[in-house]
Design brief:
Layout lengths: L9 H12 L3 H33 L4 H50 L2 H6 L2 H13 L2 H28 L1 H48 L1 H6 L3 H53 L5 H42 L20 E8 L8 E8 L4 E6 L5 H8 L7 E6 L2 E2 L5 H6 L1 E4 L8 E2 H6 L7 H10 L3 H5 L8 E2 L8 H14 L4 E5 L10 H11 L4 E5 L3 H4 L4 E6 L2 E7 H6 L4 H8 L3 H4 L2
Parallel strand pairs: 3-10, 3-11, 6-9, 9-10
Antiparallel strand pairs: 1-2, 1-4, 4-5, 7-8, 11-12
Helix pairs in contact: 2-3, 2-6, 2-10, 3-5, 3-6, 5-7, 5-10, 6-7, 6-10, 7-9, 7-10, 9-10, 14-16, 16-17
Length: 588
């Protein structure tokens, strides 16, 4: 008895198929019907050939031979047409299903917290979202339907062979079981190679993506040799696994050819014996040979389907592992956020990216509604971490952060991040239209509002120069945009939503002299009627702040009203301004 050895529980296969194939039920029904009709035609054609040969050897009329020939040609053309249509429907089903799965995986990955994204390179994530899912195309398009179809084809052939001779039928039944058993044994041997191959492939593309993005830094720091050394190290690790995987593939192929040769020899030998004893006609011998050859196709398909399955097994496991990854940041039950500016309170907040490393230590500050907090500190002092906690990219290990006396952890993440504008130093431009780049693909924002925002922050002339207005396409690299224009686009994004809080990680390195005044004016408008946290890089911006927070090694060194610090000769901020000592470093 043939027994399938699934690496994954059968119910998981069926659950995956049910989820992504159910919406295409009628297409699958048509596809299945076409396959069944195609199988019927394959079983009928050898009978027509037998009729033709026996009629020819018995000196039948020419009309009978012509009729048989026309019938054979008609069935052959019909079978090819059905196969073509079934192939098209199968491919379409596979791509629609994998695209839905790809969408679900992408949505899940985007909802995972920063801890996940810090520990996985973009390349490795792309390999899972694209490479692994592509490996499931055949699984979704036709795997189980073809599996059933091939069984029906083999069953039909065996029944027809038994109808001619129990010896032929028995021999071919044993042949099928033996062939499948041998192929399955080889598949079990080769499966681990394919699992490891997918893992190393993911690591390689992750490495490649990461270092291609940082080519400039690699060259500037003379690290090219180091990068190439790691590159060849991965290739040396990849090669033997890839060779092993394809050798196992070749082993299955060679074994299949040997099995088919034995099968053909067996059928010809038994047929010759029966013909010598007068039990079979010439047409019947050819029909038996044809059916034996026809058995090659479903067995070969079973072999390739088993190869597809072992690739699918590895991909399904990796996709399942990804989908089972739960975000550490749990969405809140939901509270109603008030309109306008918010007050913000950090209560005994401590945080560290690693278990044994603390970046922020017992931070206690209160930012009044509508005020501006200037955050100062050397690189690595915890400034950016301080801001990220407010967006719940991470949760504190101790303490809490409250907005208008409501704990961040009680809020819906989507609503929270919609009401907090975050302007980073690195402005991300998408391969999309100007409108989509400004609204972040929110089609509910009217064009008139977008144009008003652009004119309000000083991008009116730039907008007028766009060849297709808001529908002008931008490149992901941001080519064609000056540094100042890119920064102003990030400001415009904040104005698109009714943000009550703005975090400005001021990007001094991206400013150019031409747009300096536009940037200053945009910042002034950005701060109006909003609570703002400014990670300052210029003294002119710091002067806008109502309060000053100085961080050092994650600890609050100084925190007070700016006017109090400026008038206090003992304050650290006063000394920095007075002497200029360390001010450049603290604003770096």
């Amino acid at each position: 008895m043939i027994k399938f050895n699934f690496k994954i529980p059968f119910k998981e296969y069926m659950g995956l198929l049910k989820t992504y194939l159910k919406p295409q039920g009628w297409i699958i029904a048509v596809f299945s019907s076409l396959l069944l009709i195609g199988i019927l035609f394959q079983l009928i054609n050898p009978q027509i050939i037998r009729y033709f040969l026996d009629s020819a050897t018995q000196n039948s009329s020419t009309n009978q031979l012509i009729f048989a020939a026309i019938l054979f040609i008609g069935f052959s053309f019909a079978q090819q047409g059905i196969t073509l249509l079934a192939s098209y429907l199968g491919e379409n089903v596979g791509w629609v299903a994998t695209n839905h799965l790809r969408k679900d995986v992408a949505k899940h990955v985007l909802n995972l917290d920063m801890t996940f994204h810090k520990s996985h390179t973009p390349g490795s994530i792309i390999e899972r979202m694209d490479g692994d899912i592509n490996a499931l195309t055949n699984f979704f398009s036709s795997f189980f339907i073809n599996l059933i179809g091939n069984f029906l084809l083999m069953l039909g052939v065996i029944i027809l062979l038994f109808r001619e001779s129990w010896m032929i039928g028995t021999a071919m039944s044993v042949f099928i079981v033996a062939a499948y058993y041998v192929i399955q044994r080889i598949r079990r041997f080769s499966a681990p190679f394919w699992d490891k191959l997918r893992d190393i492939s993911s690591d390689f593309y992750g490495f490649l993506s990461e270092h291609l993005e940082s080519t400039e830094e690699t060259r500037a720091n003379g690290a090219t040799k180091y990068v190439m050394s790691k590159f060849f190290k991965i290739l040396r690790k990849w090669l033997p696994v890839r060779v092993g995987a394809f050798l196992s593939f070749g082993l299955i192929w060679i074994t299949t050819i040997l099995i088919f040769t034995v099968g053909n020899a067996t059928s010809i030998g038994i047929s010759s014996f029966l013909w010598d004893n007068g039990f079979l006609s010439v047409g019947t011998i050819y029909m038996i040979f044809y059916y034996t050859e026809l058995l090659v196709k479903p067995i070969e398909k079973l072999r390739t389907q088993m190869e597809d399955l072992q690739r699918a097994d590895a991909s399904i496991n990796r996709i399942k592992e990804l989908l089972n990854t739960k975000p550490k940041i749990v969405d809140g039950a939901g509270v109603v956020l008030p309109e306008g500016a918010f007050s913000i309170k950090y209560e005994n907040v401590s945080f560290g990216y690693e278990e044994n490393s603390t970046i922020l230590h017992n931070v206690n500050i209160t930012i009044q509604k509508g005020s501006v907090l200037g955050v100062v500190g050397r690189t690595g002092s915890g400034k950016t971490t301080f801001a990220r906690l407010l967006l719940r990219f991470y949760d504190p290990i101790n303490g809490s952060i409250r907005i208008d006396d409501m704990d961040l952890r009680d809020m819906k993440l989507k609503e929270l991040r919609k009401r907090i504008g975050y302007v980073t130093q690195q402005v991300e431009i998408f391969q999309a239209s100007v409108k989509d780049n400004l609204t972040l693909f929110d089609n509910s924002i009217p064009d008139k509002h977008i144009v008003n925002v652009l004119e309000d922050i000083g991008l009116g002339r730039w907008y007028q120069s766009l060849p297709y207005g808001l529908n002008t396409m931008l490149n992901a690299s941001g080519s064609g945009l000056s540094a100042g224009e890119a920064q102003l686009i990030s400001f415009a994004r904040v104005f698109m939503n009714n943000a009550g809080v703005v975090i400005l990680d001021e990007a001094s390195s991206r400013l150019d002299t031409v747009t300096e005044n536009l940037i200053e004016a945009a910042i002034s408008k950005l701060l109006v009627n909003r609570t703002c946290i400014v990670i300052a890089h210029r003294l002119s911006t710091l002067k806008r702040a109502d309060d000053i927070l100085i961080l050092e090694d994650g600890q609050v060194i100084e925190y007070d009203k700016q006017k109090n610090l400026v008038s206090d000769s003992n304050s650290r901020f006063y000394k920095m301004l007075k002497t200029g000592s360390g001010i450049e470093e603290m604003l770096a």
